[in-house]
Amino acid sequence: MAQLDTRAKLAILADAAKYDASCASSGTAKRHSRDGKGIGSTEGMGICHAYAPDGRCISLLKILLTNSCIFDCHYCINRKSSNVRRARFTAQEVVALTLSFYRRNYIEGLFLSSGIIGSSNYTMEQIVEVARSLREDHDFRGYIHLKTIPDADPELVHLAGVYADRVSINVELPTTGGLKRLAPEKSATQIEGAMGKVAHDIADGRDARKRYKSAPKYAPAGQSTQMIVGADAATDRDIVGKASTLYDRYGLRRVYYSAFSPIPEASAVLPLQRPPLMREHRLYQSDWLMRFYDYRADEVRAAADDATGMLPLDIDPKLAWALKFRDRFPVDVNRAPREMLLRVPGLGVKAVNAILTARRWRRLALADVARLTVSIAKLRPFLIADDWRPVLLADRAELRPVVAPKKADQMELFS
């Protein structure tokens, strides 16, 4: 095989990393080099693909160390039996690329994952060496996210958190049965065991920081994971339940969902078509309900269709839940507690907080609520205001056509 130059390797390994969705850079410790020491920063505006909760766009060099792999997971484009062009960076090549791109103001951090070469321990050593060299040899203060390997030596996984802002271990698939069928060389027990160890190390690090100010920070941006959606028979109810369990057990910062994408020369056990991208979007919305709107997992799961276990694609999960439990509505915007206001379709967290503040001073009319939301039409059947009571709407047998968003027709390019 012809020797590849750095540009050719980068083209292959950056493209191979596009299936990793979990690269958001939010939540880490603030660092900068304005004092003239070190290089890099975790603050400021970026130019590319990872977004923080406050809207900042953080640019990351997102690559694989190698797309060669000794595993043969059916859903993976880089599996052992896949006929793709292979490439491999050395640890020092990744370090040089990261520093070079930073100095040109292309990036603010690094997201590094890898296929398994040689062994899990050898691969993990190379990943950790990249982060160690950036931090210790070059005093790099930018953001680093490392994908760790669950069956590697626990000490190597621990070192990843010493040098990285965030670490992640992919659970791959929502169910144990799906993992056994599509990735027989991986173990759900081993994956969750490694996640538990990282969660324990993060908790220990926080405790040490409370006792000693000089204690080093361990993975200050926490850990995350990723699930493939649509490669197996798991329903949305299964996925929501799995995500809730992971949040509760391991204190994850994020669970990412990646819609399965058919790959060239795919295994016969995989579906022929990808799931609708809207399904991935609805799962992110359901995740938001659990993280920010105080919904329990069983409440979100109740929004799914009783027969199929799938969330509706034409309306969001919050509206689906409200339509299914109409006996909880309408709620009085001037009296209802925060938890019920958060369940009103069309009201976000900021709007609810503004309502709670405003109603301390006066009673709110429908027009007051309208100023806090994009469209009042969705809210009208679900709330009572000082000048509004939805008598006819609340009693209507079929409410969904009234509140569901109108489906836009695709325009013809050649009419």
Automatic annotation (TrEMBL):
Keywords: Iron, Iron-sulfur, Metal-binding, S-adenosyl-L-methionine. Gene3D superfamilies: Aldolase class I (3.20.20.70). SMART domains: Elp3 (SM00729). InterPro entries: Aldolase_TIM, DNA_rSAM_put, Elp3/MiaA/NifB-like_rSAM, Endo/Exo/Phosphatase_dom_1, rSAM, rSAM_sf, RuvA_2-like. Residues 59-286 form the Elp3/MiaA/NifB-like radical SAM core domain. Its cofactor is [4Fe-4S] cluster. It comes from the Bacteria. PANTHER family: ENDONUCLEASE/EXONUCLEASE/PHOSPHATASE FAMILY DOMAIN-CONTAINING PROTEIN 1, TYPE II SECRETION SYSTEM PROTEIN K. This is Biotin synthase. It comes from Sphingomonas hankookensis.
